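JOB MANIFEST
job_type = single_chain_structure
chain_count = 1
residues = 420
[input]
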Amino acid sequence: MLAINAPRGTKDVLPSESSKWQYVESIIREHCRLYGFREIRTPIFEHTELFQRGVGETTDIVQKEMYTFLDRGERSITLKPEGTSPAVRAFIENNLYNEALPEKLYYMTPVFRYERPQAGRLREHHQFGVEVFGAADASVDAEIISLALEFFNKLGVKGLSLDINSIGCPKCRKEYNKALKEYLKSNFDNLCGTCKDRYDRNPLRILDCKVESCQEIVKGAPIIIDYLCDDCKEHFQSLKQCLDELGYEYNVNPMIVRGLDYYTKTVFEIISNDIGTQSTVCGGGRYDGLIKECGGPDLPAVGFGMGLERLLLVLESQGIKLPIGETVDVFIASIGDNAKLKASKIINELRKNNISADMDYMDRSLKGQMKYANKLNAKYTVILGDNEIESGKINLKNMKTSEQVEINLSDLYHRLKEEL
């Protein structure tokens, strides 16, 4: 019988790697706490309409990449391909807009996109994101950019650059779309099939096309910041002033539009050159119309998302070592049935007192038990046999230094508390 493998584009996180994830997740939680963000957890699947309305029907995500199916009630359901729309849905459904604003949220969630698997981007990958609902000021845009940059600093990531742009609001976007379509008209026949469809429905999406021929065509396209209305110009200028005040260097990149239809005004990307062509490690921006589009009040919003798999690749490429969690504080190797029963009782008491402890359950030899203790990264080991039980004396061995001390068996807990 053939073995069943994990579906293509998915990956197991094995115990040897999970400590790295746990460390990064702990930094995320503490870092978001410092900025006043609270965690939100949304379902793994949503009604398909949420993403059609929120993400946009002209995006690659909706057109090509969503995992969509009919459930037993004939309802169209989609595994969430991104985290913002579900957070907006939860904000509206639970009337969080009636609480003190802004509402500052963060999440760590799996997301699903049917695309060609590649380094740092799997069909199931994990996203860390933040959302701020209810604040229109550009200082909030600067704050979440600061949150992202300082998070990377905390992990020791080097060589990052920040690109920013403004894609305006529906008012100035209308004028820009006219100019863009006029520019693209002469090259319409050379656009890919998807971009030909976008030409009338959402020409801005053409700037985000990954097809090389389309990328060449748009190199000389009009620049959207030249078409911003006074309000959007002022907002973008304010963002730059905030970033200057915070001391962050940035590049104004007029080609950044991001891959989702809900963005307005600010868009930004944080770039790394350490993972090849997939260089964006964090991206986000403002989406002032999304809450209203999803059935809520007319409130502004801004946020970002970053892929955790891609982040771990950056850490690895830069040689940044993450702490590897030790499995147990003490391992008790037993000799004989009486010692095995005694060891079981001892480790149970230690665990009740918040000292991690383990023992052998496979009837290994003493040598085999000690090898197993090494594999568990045990800090200390104890050998327990009939002699030790009778005398009440044991040798506590420090596995890092190989030093041994003889102590009373009854003093094991107190000695470990002193050493750990």
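[summary]
The mean pLDDT is 92.
The radius of gyration is 28 Å.
exit_status = 0
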